[in-house]
Structure formats: structure tokens, C-alpha cells
Specification:
Length: 77
């Protein structure tokens, strides 16, 4: 995949530059190449909240589904 001005395999694109996606396309985040975890990213139709004073951004505003354990049993050593 290549976007104008970017080298192959090196992408720095903000999510707001990708939306709205073309009809029929979905956006995924590939987190752990070894474990092959992919998460679907979607844009909400809800009006965004105003930034809160003293809160650090960027921040997760919503989650859905079970959180996978990244390295099970690693704390045991």
C-alpha cells in the first residue's frame, strides 16, 4: 500500500484523513504482528465531547468487547 509522499511500509496518517471511508471498506489496526491481533476501528456518529480540563489526550473514549491478555503467564517469572 502506498499513499502520496510516503515510502512503502512507512505510513503516518491521521484517522481523520481516512474518514469517510469508501463504501464497503473497513479500517483495522494491526497491533501485534507475532500474535496477529487486528482490531476494527469505526467512527461514531455521536457528537464528540468537549475536551476536559486536566485530562491527558489522546484518550480512549469507548471500548467494546473483551480485552485480550497480551502475554499470559509472563508475570509468573
Amino acid at each position: 500500500m502506498r499513499f502520496d509522499g510516503e515510502e512503502e511500509g512507512s505510513l503516518e496518517i491521521r484517522l481523520r484523513e481516512l474518514f469517510p471511508l469508501q463504501k464497503g471498506l473497513k479500517l483495522f489496526y494491526w497491533f501485534d504482528y507475532g500474535d496477529d491481533w487486528k482490531f476494527q476501528i469505526s467512527k461514531s456518529r455521536k457528537k464528540p465531547k468537549e475536551p476536559e480540563s486536566g485530562k491527558q489526550y489522546p484518550a480512549i473514549v469507548a471500548e467494546k468487547g473483551e480485552k485480550p491478555e497480551q502475554y499470559p503467564g509472563l508475570d509468573e517469572y
